[in-house]
């Protein structure tokens, strides 16, 4: 016993030391070793020559810094010791927040290492001679909100990863370059980039149709697509944005302009397009007008077997009432809220991003079963207009108290976060059947990624696993931090979808609240069998944020160890992961518990944040709920202990196929 305690103690001491001393001073290193040489190209640059360790950090040009504790480094006071401090650049708690070198005669290229500046908020490199392409890694600089690269000589296409910044982005300007190709759409089809106000793609060589996804950016104030090579119609929905400035001139747009309202925009906004472009403020359209482009005739596609189930549930309602228009659906929503306040009558409730759905759409969709669980079935369903949705049909008998049920559903319908799959609509049938309608994402779940070996699957190195874990943690922290906090209630790798950029998205959150206890208990028993159940949990209704943290801890161990969690697995397939780690620590074989694939390219597990992650996971799985960290704390620790070598994140094409390694 005594020996064990000594060993355990040393285990914690090692972790503690590793945890407190590992903090990369890497922003400075990145600036000197990668960013400076890349930006200046082949010629020495006057301003960049100030980035030199023999110059005090405060005098490095164009940079703003912040300490880890959130305090800004103030360099304005020339009498302060910081202004002349020659050792400041070694301070590991300094991070770059702003890089501003406009009109600085830069003649090089944008370095991919910009993506590693995780606290960088603004990047202003306008009016320089930068050439080459916009590196895909820029989209991984997770704090970037203002990007100004106008007036350079950038070429190539815009990387899709730029929309990784969607949530935070306020301003994105790349006016006056030589960028080409069509504009990539965000990975999430209904991304609204809610903070985005300024978008300037003007004077480039972009082509293709009007980028429709922009019409969903509902905070947009200024949009410039002028002087490009866009063609086709201008979508009707553009007029719904509250744009203050718009420039569509000098493209090849055609067809009927949307109705922006009298005298909102002048002729100059639309001049220089295809002569067929018409409608106010341009000339009137000749012939029969009013044909809104893209209107699709409703065609009933034969129901496939799987969806007949859904259809038969809905058909009674559908035959009774036919409601089509969005405003009527709005009314329905009110009706449900005010009068019935419950789940008695069959109703379709629409949430943000699901406004286009009608009951007919859902009814006429063709579907296939994706997954069956004890409490419901998930379908992938194709809509007549070509869109795809995911339908989750919950078994009858959930939601005994109608009022609270709908309150919870409405709360779930408001949740929007990049790491959570949004609920777009909800249907409650007369007999208590429930249909939850989500975005369909064609991604693999984390369980498959971790445990199923298949050719073509991406290598899951530490950088990628860390990104996945951080995404999940952020999603959970968001749920727990809401004004009315939501407990996920069913955290497990099967409920995490991972896209090709290793962005993780959680599904199934908050469902325990709408189940009757018997159904909820079934979820708990599955969670128990799968090893995610917190020891203090007896019934699902006692689920709380701390039990989510426990399940996250197990999930993080699963990510680190590459083994399926569970107790008393029959074929040795499932393992009590916390127990395994404890034994490894006692036997001083901690390094051996990590998944081999994860250790690839790792030289020092302490520096890479691996050991800290293991410690964090064990903390989350603490048997006593009160000592577990909050999800906010988990996010903070994961952010502080990032893997150093994140380059592998940036090559999504790297797969296991050619490696020939026995993982
Ligand atoms: C840094 O500045 C010193 C002194 O001005 C100079 O000798 C040295 O070459 C500079 N180093 C770099 C990497 O520019
Ligand atoms: C933040 O950290 C810096 C450097 O470590 C220190 O000088 C400063 O006083 C700290 N500020 C606060 C508010 O703790
Ligand atoms: C800009 O850089 C070029 C070399 O690329 C140099 O010849 C020129 O003098 C620089 N101009 C200024 C204003 O520094
Ligand atoms: C629109 O953009 C073009 C090309 O960038 C510019 O010449 C024109 O002045 C702009 N028009 C408006 C109304 O902003
Ligand atoms: C513009 O796009 C058309 C096809 O839509 C293409 O034929 C033409 O070459 C493009 N023009 C420029 C200047 O890129
Ligand atoms: C403009 O678009 C039309 C089709 O709408 C196409 O026939 C024409 O070639 C395009 N013109 C240019 C200059 O790209």
TrEMBL record:
Residue stretches spanning the membrane: 295-318
Residues annotated as signal peptide: 1-24
UniProt GO MF annotations: ATP binding; protein kinase activity
Membrane topology of this protein: Single-pass membrane protein
UniProt xrefs under PROSITE patterns: PROTEIN_KINASE_DOM
GO cellular component: membrane
Protein family: Belongs to the protein kinase superfamily.
Name this polypeptide is given: Protein kinase domain-containing protein
Source species of the chain: Solanum commersonii
């Amino acid at each position: 016993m005594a020996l064990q305690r000594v060993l355990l103690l040393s285990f914690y001491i090692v972790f503690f030391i590793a945890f407190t001393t590992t903090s990369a001073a890497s922003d400075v290193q990145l600036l000197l070793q990668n960013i400076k040489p890349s930006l200046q190209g082949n010629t020495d640059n006057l301003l960049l020559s100030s980035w030199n360790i023999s110059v005090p950090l405060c005098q490095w040009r164009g940079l703003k810094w912040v300490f880890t504790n959130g305090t800004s480094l103030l360099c304005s006071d020339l009498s302060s010791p910081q202004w002349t401090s020659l050792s400041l650049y070694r301070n590991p708690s300094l991070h770059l927040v702003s890089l501003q070198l406009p009109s600085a005669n830069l003649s090089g290229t944008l370095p991919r290492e910009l993506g590693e500046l995780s606290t960088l908020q603004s990047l202003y490199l306008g009016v320089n001679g930068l050439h080459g392409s916009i590196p895909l890694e820029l989209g991984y600089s997770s704090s970037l909100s203002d990007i100004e690269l106008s007036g350079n000589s950038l070429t190539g296409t815009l990387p899709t990863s730029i929309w990784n910044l969607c949530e935070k982005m306020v301003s994105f300007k790349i006016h006056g370059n030589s960028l080409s190709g069509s504009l990539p759409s965000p990975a999430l089809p209904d991304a609204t980039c809610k903070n985005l106000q300024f978008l300037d793609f003007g004077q480039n060589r972009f082509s293709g149709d009007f980028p429709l996804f922009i019409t969903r950016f509902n905070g947009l104030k200024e949009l410039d697509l002028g002087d490009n090579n866009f063609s086709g119609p201008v979508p009707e929905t553009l007029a719904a944005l509250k744009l203050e400035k718009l420039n569509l001139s000098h493209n090849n747009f055609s067809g009927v302009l949307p109705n922006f309202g009298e005298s909102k925009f002048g002729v100059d906004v639309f001049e220089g397009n295809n002569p067929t472009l018409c409608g106010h403020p341009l000339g009137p359209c000749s012939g029969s007008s009013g044909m809104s482009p893209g209107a699709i005739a409703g065609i009933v596609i034969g129901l496939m077997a799987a969806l007949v189930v859904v259809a038969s549930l809905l058909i009674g309602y559908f035959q009774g009432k036919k409601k089509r228009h969005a405003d009527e659906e709005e009314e329905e929503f009110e009706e449900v809220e005010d009068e019935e306040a419950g789940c008695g009558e069959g109703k379709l409730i629409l949430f943000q991003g699901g406004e286009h759905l009608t009951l007919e759409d859902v009814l006429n969709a063709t579907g296939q079963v994706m997954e069956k669980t004890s409490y419901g079935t998930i379908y992938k369903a194709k809509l007549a207009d070509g869109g795809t949705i995911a339908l989750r049909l919950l078994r009858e008998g959930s939601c005994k108290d109608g009022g609270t049920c709908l309150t919870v559903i409405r709360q779930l319908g408001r949740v929007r976060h990049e790491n959570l799959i949004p609920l777009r609509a909800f249907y409650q049938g007369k007999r208590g059947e429930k249909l939850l309608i989500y975005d369909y994402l064609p991604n693999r779940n984390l369980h498959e990624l971790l445990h199923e070996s298949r050719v073509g699957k991406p290598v899951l190195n530490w950088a990628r696993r860390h990104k996945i874990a951080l995404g999940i943690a952020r999603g959970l922290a968001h749920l727990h931090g809401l004004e009315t906090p939501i407990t996920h209630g069913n955290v497990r790798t099967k409920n995490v979808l991972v896209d090709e950029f290793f962005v993780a998205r959680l599904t199934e959150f908050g469902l325990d609240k709408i189940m009757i206890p018997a159904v909820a208990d079934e979820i708990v028993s599955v969670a128990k069998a799968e090893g995610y159940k917190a020891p203090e949990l007896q019934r699902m209704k006692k689920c709380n944020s701390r039990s989510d943290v426990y399940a996250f801890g197990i999930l993080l161990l699963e990510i680190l160890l590459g083994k399926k969690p569970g107790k008393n697995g029959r074929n040795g397939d499932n393992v009590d992961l916390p127990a395994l780690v404890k034994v490894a620590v006692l036997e001083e074989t901690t390094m051996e518990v990590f998944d081999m694939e994860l250790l690839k390219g790792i030289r020092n597990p302490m520096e890479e944040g691996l050991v800290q992650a293991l410690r964090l996971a064990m903390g989350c799985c603490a048997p006593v709920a009160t000592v577990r960290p909050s999800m906010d704390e988990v996010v903070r620790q994961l952010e502080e202990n990032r893997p150093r070598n994140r380059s592998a994140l940036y090559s999504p094409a790297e797969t296991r196929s050619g490696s020939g390694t026995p993982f």
